[in-house]
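Protocol step 6 of 9: fold each sequence in the batch and record its structure tokens directly after the sequence line. For illustration, a two-sequence batch is reproduced in full.

Sequence one:
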Amino acid sequence: RSSLSGSSLVSSNATFVRPSYFYINGFENIPHIKYYYVFLCLVYAVTVLANSFIMAVIYLARNLHTAKYVVVFNLAVTDLCGSTALIPKLIETFLFEKQYISYEACLSSMFFVYVFMTMQSLSLLTLAYDRFVAIVFPLRYHVIVTKTAMLVILAVLWLFTLALISFTVSLITHLSFCGSLVIKSFFCDHGPTYALSCNNNSLNNIMAWVCFLVVLCIPIILIVLTYVCIAIALIRIATGAERVKAMRTCTSHLILVAIFYLPMVGNNIAAVVSYIHPNARIINNSLTQTMPAMLNPIIYSLRTEEVVDSVRKLYNIYSLRTEESHFNVAVIDEFPSTYSEENWGYTTTL
């Protein structure tokens, strides 16, 4: 497999040599690895259900039509789409042993995976901004953080992300592949892909570092700074009860931040300071990119009082309507002569 080369599998123009396909290597010599892919299937199913649930709750509950939940809704969308861009293709590749992927499909997969991963990170940063304004400037919160302002911020972040990832992926098309075509990862990962090129890929390396800074380093630094400011503001609050109440509004976000960033930071530190077996690296990276999308909506459903209250109210409304519907049907069945099909209502003969 590692001997696959581009010698007889390429299309070329005047400048670049492009392969017809790549081969995604994945795991090597792990017995019963298919059980792991079945586990990822379950993760994906829960991810779809949980994120669809949180989006439906935000859409149906009018009290959640606020600036904060615009961002939470956006995070749920990126979680759902990010998992959809990665897990089904991963299952097809390894569980059904379709490890050859066309050049165009590889770049397309790379684009969507990185777009949604970047937006997940930037959505968490936007939520940190929301909490910062809410606690540090509570009296001006509803003036500064409006739905319109959040929609503008998210639109700018989406445009920035699309431009950044489009440029990064498009640089792959300026590379020639004349050696191995084996991508040593579990999807068309940017780094392992451009590393296979046989011409100058220095610009690709620069953009890899830029993406690393945008997705990981800068958001972490800004989130830490916002919580330093939040901590200072909480210290100035007079009573401990008020501090606990204010901090409780941040716990859900802090858990999401820890779940998303800590594994990524750990993987990168481990890769720098020691050797990681390729199989261990793939397991770490695959879990890092799939588990947060599943856990985020579950945490928000369980840890946020507003969401819990909204779910309870929606359930009560649904139960009440169901009972009314059953009652109406029962009355019609018991007193059919009092029901007029002409006016679709009950007569007054009772």
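Sequence two, same batch, same settings:
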Amino acid sequence: MDWSALLDRPFQQRAIVRGLPGLGVVIGTQTSTGFVARRTSELITAGTDDLVLTILQTGRFMQRQLGRETELAPGEAILGSGSDVGEVMLQPNSSFVALSLPRHAMIPVLAYIQDRVGASLPASSEPLRLLTSYVSNVLCGAAPVTSPILQQRVVSHVYDLVALALSRSPGINSLHGGTAAARLNAIKSDILAHLGDGSLSESMIASRHGITARYIRLLFQVEETTFSDFVRNARLVRAHRILTDPCLSERTITSIAYEVGFCDLSHFNRLFRKTYGARPSEIRPCKGARVLCSTRPGEER
């Protein structure tokens, strides 16, 4: 990004940066100048195609990208794309939290992720409130998360909450009412919490939530997907996170496949290759690589 002060004063920014495998977090406060940050075509060529979810805490924030101009109110959020030209503007005396997420980690769960770029998420969104609370309590505190296993779980939780916040629940609200939207979010949370159960099924989830399996199918149809697709893709995403984590390189592919809920290793291998274009063994970090398995401490700059 090309950064510049919004006011005719020396650029000033205070921020805390956290880095976890597959997740970047910036907690920023502007005290006097505000800023404009632009992503040009040259920066896209040399940069990343990560997705950035910005949550405005106080003040005013505006984003221009893909022909959309959106201004946020406190508590609202917006998704930005690192692979598209755009700019953001933060007014003086404003604060925000920005989450940087790999695009490949979100696509299997949200095939329509590009459609969500530039769309604001309302402060009334329950998944967004849960995400904001989780990030504030776990990632914005003074003590960083240093355990590799805890880091993996924290990143997984953030991915899951982002996916819920960005899901097309508004469509459910208009077709079936707010109760259905809340129910689908609860079903998704239940699925994500029990991915490792190879016997997970529509009937099992329906029984736990006091509804019919057919109703579950209807809820997922509104989002143009199915229960089976959601479960399969969520398992593949979780497996990919573990396989690409250098700190977990000693884990066997078989144990990872079973941990995320696949009961047939050959079936897992076929689905993984179809989704990611490579076998599980081909995306693993080099065994000879030296890796420091700890998060970067919070730093102010």
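Proceed to step 7 once all outputs are recorded. Observation for sequence two: The longest strand covers residues 51-58.
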